What we know:
The complex is a heterotrimer.
Chain A (H helix, E strand, L loop, with lengths): L4 E12 L2 E12 L3 E5 L6 H8 L9 E9 L2 E2 L7 H7 E4 L10 H11 L5 H14 L3 H4 L12 H13 L5 E5 L7 H14 L4 E5 L3 H7 L2 E6 L2 E7 H6 L4 H11 L1
Parallel strand pairs in A: 3-8, 3-9, 6-7, 7-8
Antiparallel strand pairs in A: 1-2, 1-4, 4-5, 9-10
Chain B lengths: L13 H43 L2 H6 L3 E2 L7 E2 L2 H32 L2 H16 L2 H20 L7 H25 L3 H9 L4 H30 L2 H6 L17 H9 L7 H34 L1
Antiparallel strand pairs in B: 1-2
Chain C lengths: L1 H37 L4 H5 L2 E2 L4 E2 L2 H32 L4 H13 L4 H15 L6 H25 L3 H9 L4 H30 L2 H4 L21 H11 L3 H36 L3
Antiparallel strand pairs in C: 1-2
Helix pairs in contact in C: 1-11, 3-6, 3-8, 4-6, 5-6, 6-8, 7-8, 8-11, 10-11
Magnesium ion binds next to helix 1 of chain A.
Amino acid sequence: MSEDIEIETKNLNLWYGDKQALKNINMKIPEEKVTAVIGPSGCGKSTLIRCFNRMNDIIDCCRVKGTILIDGKDIYNKKMDVVELRKNVGMVFQKPNPFPKSIYENIAYAPRIHGLKNKKKLNKAVEKCLKQAFIWDEVKDRLGDSAKSLSGGQQQRLCIARALAVEPEILLMDEPCSALDPIATAKIEELIRYLSKEYTVVIVTHNMQQAARVSDYTAYMYIGELIEFGKTKQIFENPYEESTENYITGRFG
Amino acid sequence: MKHTMFSLKKFDYKKIRNIKDKTVRKILLGFGLTAVIFIILILAFLLMEGLPFFFNGDSIDFFTGDVWDPSSPNIPRYGILPMVLGTFLVTLGAIVIAVPIGVGCSIYLAEIAHPKIRETLKPVIEILAGIPSVVYGFFALVVLSAWIDDFFHSTTRLNALTGSIMLAVMMLPIIISLSEDAIRSVPREMKEASLALGLTKWDTIRGVVIPAALSGITAAIILGVARAIGETMTVLMATGNAPVISFDMLTSMRTMTATIAVEMGEVPFGSIHYHALFAVGIVLFVITFVINFIADKVMKRFREKY
Amino acid sequence: MKWKKIKEHIIYSLLRLTGLFIVCALAVLLFYIISGGMGKMSWDFLSSFPKDGMMSGGIFPMIIGTLSLMTLTMLIALPIGTLSAIYLVEYAKPGRFTDAIRLAVHNLAGVPSIVYGLLGLGLFVVFLGLGLSLISAALTLAIMVLPIIIASSQEALRAVPQNIREGALALGSTKWETTRYHVLPYALPGMMTGSILALSRAAGETAPIIMTGAAFYITHLPSSIFDEFMALPYSIYTLATQSSNVEATRPTIFGAILVLLLIVLCMNLVAIIARNYYRKKYRW
Ligand SMILES: Nc1ncnc2c1ncn2[C@@H]1O[C@H](COP(=O)(O)OP(=O)(O)O)[C@@H](O)[C@H]1O
Ligand SMILES: [Mg+2]
């Protein structure tokens, strides 16, 4: 591969208590591309991407072995500052989870805690993030309204804007469209394509067509193992592994 | 660093924030530990003050003796049996009265009552639960005992029955609210399945809802009982406080809690009598702890089911 | 079929009667207390000291005693209770230690108040040498309500959905920032409601303060937290059971009960209204 590598995992293993959820994952996720992670439900997709911002830290029975390098730095190193890491690696969740505050506050919160106190700059930042997430026109006249008053699709785009507001380089998305209708989904897919110009996006999806539409690379997982990783076009048209082909064709058929 | 649209990196609050985070964690841990220490202290002090009695006093007489007479000029006797019996009978009486009314009322509230009636009854129950026990005690002493006297012509105005009735009223809010929760958490599909088979509403309640909620209702009753056993002021003021062995509900009786409350004010610190009262406290603590523990287990089983 | 209908009708009527019983119980209780105490209610009764061995005069020192006891109890129990609940829910790693605390907190809520009285006597009055005093009684009541405050605070904290915490952490908030800005604001009303209810229970408690500092009669207000004090519930108890002239003291008792009930029920009312308000406000 010719691209620069943003995230690299080496012999990544993960256990929930006694149960192993990730087995020897080795993958290299390229920079400023969209990488889709697909596989049957329960195969460890969410678990994998939650390693990239160490979200698994908050699950008490979870144990990780192996190395994950982001920009060449080992994020499971003791010296790694988790807060700093999460600032660099944004995340959008399956179910939209806006804070029960105003639309403005949802976006302004993170820059503010990270030290941006200037009111004017903050306003600018909020506007910019909302524009980047294609939601500015829909909310610009009601920034003071509660985020809960938005539709599901709007809430999810708000969450994306919220993640952009910390200026991450990587954006993790865990089935961001699974709770949304087709129109809202189309909007978010368009947004993902647009974001990949500047951000490294890792998206988990169990919608094959979605993976084919939005991603440059695809990783196929099965019961905790990474079966195949490669260019999306190649994975979908000409997979090496039979298991991958069965899964993909099964879903397409 | 590529994205510097509003130059967050220029502000470096990182260090302060991290220090703050760590400090708060330590402070909170401190408070958590304080709470734990308080809790351990309860046990420690009960044991510290109660155990000397078992070493110095007559611990066999304590558990088997049928006389409690610590101020006897000849031989002070410390037999806990009269008080255990008093607690048992008064509580039993309260259970007999409170359980049918309480469970009945919870079924009524959860399954039958119109929502409007329910909304008015709930605060009534909450107010009953909030009334201090000394107020119930006073009511028993002044009003209820006169009624009982008129009705049964008892030899003593203050007797076990008065205490039982008053305790029953105090237990009701606990039994009703917890049982109602249990009944309401029976899944609707179960009820609908039964109704769909052509059973009447009452058959459904009796045959499906109550059996399903039974462990939750049981836990509610057990917790009510624990409350009754531990209640002090009401029985102190209502039951007449004679530490005698009797099975007649119309005679005066004295419970463990009342004994501690009455006598603790008058004993010299460190005397055998003082330690004996702590020993009674230990017995009381163990009984209520075990009861609560059982209720907790029963409740957990109920929760796991649904 | 007809017989069955009649039978159900009877059962329903019986169940309805139990509901009626509850209402009647409260009505009778309130009727006696209000009719007995209403006549006594006057500014003079509330603001003057008792006279003639408490057969006349007012209940001012008891009210002040109860209120200062409450304030002191709150100052001790509220920070310890709520902060340790935050620790237990947001910070503590599961394990034997945490389980032990949870178990203890849970079961101690059911320990009789008189046992807490014994603890207060042994620990604060005798061992720590605080004597019979306001502070001994307040510490005792604080320990008594601690498990209730912790339990209800934990419940309120757990009601905040986990995905809100994850959302905040994913933005690079520290643990404390997450708790402070995204958990506490929504859990606080619930925590306060539970705490007020617990404190209202403490306000009416008599047994623990009998042994730790409440006095039958003193001619002055407590001048420091190390003084003995008079309190409404204890005065009600002593006047009702130990007075030599029952008829003469009765109006004073009724008056004291009415005031105590007002204090306790007002606290309950505030808590319940707040709870219902916030329950509607935050539906996750
Ligand atoms: N918090 C957890 N505790 C224990 N096991 C978990 C936890 N989260 C996920 N798992 C288990 O790990 C496996 C992978 O889960 P997940 O990563 O959520 O799968 P996916 O996102 O691919 O559907 C599943 O078998 C699941 O049961
Ligand atoms: Mg998943």
